[in-house]
């Protein structure tokens, strides 16, 4: 009987279980304290990147240099899909004279290793992609994490919104094709799919908002 | 227990005689990956030092409760907890650095250096010795990372900590900040350390 109790798996693991509980509690505490700070960092970075994603690096630097800044108005758009509601953070960027510079949407979805969070920018009429920025990723170093590099991201700039983008491994030839990163097809695919999904979910809504605003002005 | 090294011996051993990078060849993944500049190297060294110190102390305090077949689970659990704390802390207070280091901070969990110290020292000796061991090993790891990073950043960008030091005529050897530079530098420095210590033993 005693031997049976001693061999009980749960009893043997009491230290592991206790430690897991204690560590879990302390991590929850750390997250409660630091979570809001990290969230704030992310929001600050998003606000900094919105002009770059909408206007491009050079143009955004020019505006910042001249002392002006884009007015950025964040909003949340709910999208009903298959009975579930999905929320997007959308940033409406306007010049000082009230003219819309473009839209930026924040999207997040599962990548190869962990969740990828990105910003994708559109022009005011939502006809073209104006830029892409990766906010958060934990893809494989040396392969998948190349999604953050300018060289790869810049492929998306200027792509038309009307046709869905596809990832190809043999060199992009058509206008809606994106070169995969060699060794990281899944990461490339995930980012491209996220952008397609964002366009599908938000494209119409943003277009409507833009025409409504224009009508309002007339 | 008489043959176990004392706290002072543990401390000194970590710095050069048992340097984690140059002697034990442990933790080479971050060593190669984050040494393209002094700043990321120092951040990594500090994070490892924090995790190693805390993990060593906790492991040492519970060493009498450890069951042989469950010890690795306990080590990993302890290390993972402190790595997560370090990761969150960096994301909260040095956000850009945390983004630059990306997955390498979470990857400290699988750094053999820490599990090795838990196994070799902390699970057998008192918290005081384990703490001294952690500090010694951390200094050794930090020095190793800093030495590799200094060579790579200086030759690759002509400066240290982002400050330009070499004359403007210096053609930046871009390869030094790329992955091949890490292997070349590590190999050469390893050779230099071996040459130095073999000379010392011959003379002695």
Overview of this protein structure:
The complex is a heterodimer of chains A (218) and B (204). Chain A has 218 residues and is an alpha+beta fold. In chain A, 44% of the residues lie in helices and 26% in strands. Chain A has one domain. Chain A contains 6 helices and 7 strands, in the order H-H-H-H-E-E-E-E-E-H-E-E-H. Chain B has 8 helices and 2 strands. Chain B has a two-stranded antiparallel ribbon. Chain A binds chain B through residues 12-13, 15-16, 19-20, 23, 26-27, 30-31, 34-35, 37-38, 41, 45, 113, 136-142, 145, and chain B through 33, 62, 65-67, 70, 73-74, 77-78, 80-81, 84-85, 88-89, 91-93, 95, 99, 102-104, 106, 179. Chain B: Pfam families: Rnf-Nqr (PF02508). Chain B: The chain crosses the membrane at residues 41-62, 74-95, 101-120, 173-196. Chain B: Keywords: Membrane, Translocase, Transmembrane, Transmembrane helix, Transport. Chain B: It is found in: Endomembrane system.
Indicate the topology.
The complex is a heterodimer of chains A (218) and B (204).
Chain A: H1 2-6, H2 9-12, H3 14-55, H4 57-65, E1 71-81, E2 84-94, E3 100-110, E4 115-123, E5 129-136, H5 150-153, E6 166-168, E7 177-179, H6 185-217
Parallel strand pairs in A: 6-7
Antiparallel strand pairs in A: 1-2, 2-3, 3-4, 4-5
Helix pairs in contact in A: 3-4
Chain B: H1 7-15, H2 28-33, H3 38-61, H4 71-93, H5 95-101, H6 112-122, H7 127-157, E1 159-160, E2 163-164, H8 179-203
Antiparallel strand pairs in B: 1-2
Low-confidence runs of at least 5 consecutive residues of chain A? none
What is the overall pLDDT average of chain A?
Answer: 84
* Rg result of chain B: 18 Å
Instruction: State the helicity of chain A in percent bands.
Output: 40-55%
Membrane topology (chain B): Multi-pass membrane protein
Subcellular location (chain B): Endomembrane system
Keywords (chain B): Membrane, Translocase, Transmembrane, Transmembrane helix, Transport
Main location (chain B): membrane
């Amino acid at each position: 009987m005693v031997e049976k109790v001693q061999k009980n798996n749960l009893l043997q693991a009491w230290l592991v279980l206790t430690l897991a509980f204690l560590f879990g509690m302390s991590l929850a505490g750390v997250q409660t304290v630091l979570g809001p700070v990290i969230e704030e960092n992310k929001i600050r970075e998003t606000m900094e990147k919105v002009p770059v994603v909408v206007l491009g690096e050079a143009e955004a630097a020019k505006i910042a240099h001249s002392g002006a800044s884009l007015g950025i108005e964040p909003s949340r758009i709910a999208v009903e899909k298959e009975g579930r509601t999905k929320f997007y953070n959308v940033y409406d960027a306007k010049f000082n004279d009230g003219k819309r510079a473009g839209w930026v949407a924040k999207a997040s979805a599962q990548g190869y290793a962990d969740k990828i969070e990105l910003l994708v920018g559109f022009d005011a009429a939502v006809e073209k992609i104006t830029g892409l920025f990766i906010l958060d990723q934990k893809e494989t170093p040396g392969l998948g994490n190349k999604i953050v590099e300018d060289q790869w991201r810049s492929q998306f700039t200027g792509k038309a919104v009307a046709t869905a983008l596809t990832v190809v491994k043999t060199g992009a030839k058509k206008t809606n094709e994106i070169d995969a990163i060699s060794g990281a097809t899944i990461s490339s695919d995930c980012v491209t799919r996220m952008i397609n999904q964002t366009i599908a979910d938000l494209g119409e809504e943003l277009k409507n908002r833009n025409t409504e605003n224009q009508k309002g002005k007339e | 227990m008489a043959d176990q090294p004392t706290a002072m011996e543990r401390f000194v051993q970590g710095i050069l005689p048992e340097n984690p990078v140059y002697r034990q060849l442990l933790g080479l993944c971050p060593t190669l990956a984050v040494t393209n500049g002094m700043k990321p190297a120092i951040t990594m060294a500090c994070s490892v030092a924090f995790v190693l110190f805390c993990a060593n102390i906790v492991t040492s305090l519970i060493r009498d409760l450890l069951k042989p077949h469950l010890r690795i689970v306990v080590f990993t659990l302890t290390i993972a907890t402190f790595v997560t704390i370090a990761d969150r802390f960096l994301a909260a207070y040095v956000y850009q650095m945390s983004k630059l280091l990306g997955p390498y901070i979470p990857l400290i969990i699988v750094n053999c250096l820490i599990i090795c110290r838990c196994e070799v020292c902390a699970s057998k000796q008192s918290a005081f010795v384990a703490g001294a061991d952690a500090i010694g090993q951390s200094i050794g790891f930090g020095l190793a990372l800093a030495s590799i990073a200094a060579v790579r950043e200086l030759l690759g960008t002509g400066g240290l900590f982002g400050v330009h030091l070499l004359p403007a005529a210096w053609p930046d050897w871009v390869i030094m900040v790329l992955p091949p530079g890490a292997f070349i530098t590590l190999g050469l420095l390893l050779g230099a350390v071996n040459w130095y210590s073999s000379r010392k033993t011959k003379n002695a």
